[in-house]
Amino acid sequence: MVQALQRPLTFDEFLAWYPDDGCIYELIDGRVVPVNPTGPHEKLSGFLVNQLNQAIAQANLPYFIPRTATVKPFREQAGYKPDVVILDERSLKDEPRWDKESTVVLGKTCKLVIEVASTNWRDDYERKLPDYEEMGIAEYWIVDYLGIAAARHIGKPKLPTVSIYGLEDGEYQLKQFRGEEHIVSSVLPALDLSVNQIVSAGRVAE
């Protein structure tokens, strides 16, 4: 079905095309990209959702984690399905696409976006990062649990790394965490989670 698309799509065309086949798709630079996460990727994402939901509940914050919401950046030919996104319930009333399309377009609605890096890690760093920054999303995590991104992004030696981009004066500032280091999040300051815990969550128990 994806192969049949011959030209770049706008976001509205993407939504009109989106099939009810149980699969997940993103729109990146006008091209439809199927999202096919591996088992470890899904297990790790589920672990993060559980930990984040606990932190949200403990702090009694008006946030929630939707199952399959779309984040639309300012560019017309893009629409992303983050692995995890925390939304602010108070901002949904201002979202023009939320009720009918489960889509958010305002940076203030997205408190935190997480992408778990896989073979398409270039999109996470080179396309989504500047788009999320331009939208004004407060915090963006790239969870590279395999240490597979280019050294220019995660350094040498290439190790499992959680890169956290926090918005300051309209620009992202980067902090990176590895090994037993604990995540420091401005959105969820009480979160108590190390990189090794995240990495271990993707493994199958023996």
Task: Describe, in plain words, how this protein is organized in 3D.
28% of the residues lie in helices and 24% in strands. With 206 residues, the protein is an alpha+beta fold. The protein has one domain (37-201): Alpha-Beta Complex (tt1808, chain A). The strands form 3 sheets. The protein has a 6-stranded mixed beta sheet with strand order 3-5-7-8-9-10. A two-stranded antiparallel sheet has the order 1-2. A two-stranded parallel sheet has the order 4-6. Strand 1 and strand 2 form a beta hairpin. Helix 2 packs across helix 6 (195-201). The longest helix has 21 residues, at 39-59. It starts with 10 loop residues before the first helix and ends in a 5-residue tail after the last helix. The mean pLDDT is 94.
